[in-house]
Design goal:
With 273 residues, the chain is of the alpha/beta class. It has eleven helices and 15 strands. The chain starts with a helix and ends in a 7-residue tail after the last strand. This is DeoR family transcriptional regulator.
């Protein structure tokens, strides 16, 4: 069973007034206890359920694939899917990309991890080491809470609930004093015009973050290459490294490398499925 289907079944089995145990879910879904525990931990970090000792409980209104209402869209970004929907799309590729990005981490490193689902995958598997992380992402913040050796900075601004990120349209004094060795960033698309997004506020925020980093590392699955998007965050010449999956075509790899980008292609392993 693919993990997306397993997650949906787990949510459906939970109750808001009692704990559904790992043993119950194991018997119901036919998965191993280790798999169920991992699923519960990931769903808890994503805000889909409440993880408690021995199992989990339902959060009222939690449902994977829940339709977005007009009220929700008032606090959303243009052209950006809700975080909970995006995180399960191309998830095996995102996990493989995140695993490869671990090679770029060094103890003591100061870094920016921008909001997004592939960057979230990286944060979720980072070791508990002496990193200094600035992030705009609530799920990334939640995933790092128990890793006490990692220092986390969260800039101020407005919360966009669907995408689970905080953006500030104004100059931020804290940000101006933060210097990162690397910035890990996702993308709505990567085209010959550069790293692309669909919302002007998101573009403004990411441009300011890029200015604070010595090196820009883009984590993007191959579906993002030449995908539709209208606003440029930065030209290709400002991207140092792109980590993507083996779905990248030879033609696309050539024009990316011609722009001076170190393109790293990773294979999707069985453990990513």
């Amino acid at each position: 069973m693919h993990f997306q289907d397993r997650w949906k079944l787990i949510i459906d089995e939970l109750n808001h007034d009692r704990v559904t145990s790992v043993d119950e879910l194991t018997a119901k879904l036919g998965a191993s206890p280790a798999t169920i525990r991992r699923d519960l931990n990931e769903l808890h970090e994503l805000g889909h359920l409440l993880r408690v000792r021995g199992g989990a409980m339902r959060i009222e209104g939690a449902h994977i694939g829940l339709k977005v209402t007009s009220d929700d869209r008032r606090n959303s970004l243009t052209g950006q899917a809700p975080f909970f929907e995006s995180v399960i799309h191309y998830a095996p590729a995102k996990k493989a990309i995140a695993r490869a990005a671990l090679d770029l981490l060094k103890p003591g490193m100061s870094m920016i991890i921008d909001g997004g689902t592939t960057t979230y995958m990286l944060a979720s598997i980072m070791p508990n080491d002496s990193y200094n992380v600035l992030t705009t992402s609530i799920p990334i913040l939640q995933s790092l809470l128990d890793r006490t050796r990692i220092r986390v900075t969260l800039p101020g601004g407005e919360l966009f609930r669907e995408q689970r990120i905080i953006l500030n349209p104004y100059e931020d004094g804290m940000l101006q004093n933060f210097a990162a060795q690397r910035m890990f960033i996702g993308a709505q698309a990567i085209t010959p015009n550069g790293l692309m997004q669909t919302d002007t506020l998101l573009v403004q925020s990411e441009r300011r973050l890029i200015e604070r980093a010595q090196q820009v590392v883009v984590l993007a699955d191959s579906s993002k290459i030449n995908a539709p998007a209208s606003l440029s965050v930065c030209p290709l010449t400002e991207i140092d490294i792109l980590i993507t999956d083996s779905g990248l075509s030879t033609r696309d790899k050539l024009w990316l490398e011609d722009a001076g980008i170190d393109v790293r292609v990773v294979d999707i392993l069985a453990e990513d499925q």
